[in-house]
Write a structure and sequence with these properties.
Number of domains: 1
CATH architecture: 3-Layer(aba) Sandwich
Radius of gyration: 16 Å
Order of helices and strands: EEEHEHEHEHEHEHEE
Strand content: 25-35%
Strand order of the largest sheet: 1-9-10-8-7-4-5-6
Helix content: 25-40%
Number of helices: 6
Number of strands: 10
């Protein structure tokens, strides 16, 4: 139901000016922690996209609505790891996943930003959308309270496996939070497919960045 309608937000410029001499590191502040993200120019997944900023900001500001403390959180297409790091700071048990070639940079960012001893130690795992899900993440032992995804929908061929992955992990009780910059007709087509399967609500829109943030849950019979 879209009765309340989405809130309109602006992505806050809450990264701090670079004091670092390295061109490839960005400094952000969320939930009282300074986060340093190393980007990698070789891969799409290794750059911080606006959806990640939007979801990080939203999770930080809406902790009562989405309390991540001691919850099990899976991020798919985690990229640089910013959202997983923020979820970890907010108290979640986080599993950050992405393609094999992205994992080294992802692991580096997550470990350097979550060494604080009072956080649950996050896990980094390979997950190729739609492949080997039941072998690598058998439902008998893996259940997540939250499934997070940011800027996973763009002009690529893996949209059907992505949707299948969302369906696989979204069980009754799981909340999917998906933030995406909407650029192409394929983005809106994916949104429509998602709405045909799940109960979907647009929680927030960031018009300056063309980002929408959606919540999706399983339709229970």
């Amino acid at each position: 139901s879209l009765t309340d309608g989405p809130v309109t937000l602006k992505i806050l410029q809450n990264w701090v000016p670079r004091v670092s001499h390295y061109f490839d590191k960005d400094h952000y502040t969320y939930a009282g922690h300074q986060i340093v993200i190393q980007e990698s120019i070789e891969y799409f997944g290794a750059v911080v996209w606006p959806g990640a900023l939007a979801l990080s900001q939203y999770l930080e500001s809406n902790q009562e609505q989405f309390n991540l403390k001691d919850k099990k959180v899976l991020e798919i297409g985690a990229g640089t790891g910013l959202v997983s790091i923020v979820a970890c700071i907010l108290g979640a048990y986080v599993t950050a996943t992405d393609l094999p070639e992205v994992l080294e940079n992802l692991s580096y960012n997550i470990s350097r930003n979550t060494q604080d001893t009072n956080m649950h130690k996050p896990e980094v795992r390979k997950l190729v959308w739609g492949e080997g899900l039941s072998e690598d993440f058998p439902l008998s032992s893996f259940h997540y309270d939250f499934l997070l995804a940011t800027d996973v929908v763009y002009h690529h061929a893996a949209l059907d496996p992505l949707l299948a992955t969302m369906v696989y992990f979204c069980k009754p009780g799981t909340v999917l939070l998906w933030a995406n910059k909407f650029r192409f007709s394929t983005d809106y087509e994916f949104l429509e497919k998602l709405g045909n399967i799940f109960n979907t609500t647009i929680l927030a829109e960031f018009p300056e960045s063309n980002v929408k943030l959606l919540k999706a849950t399983v339709r229970e019979n």
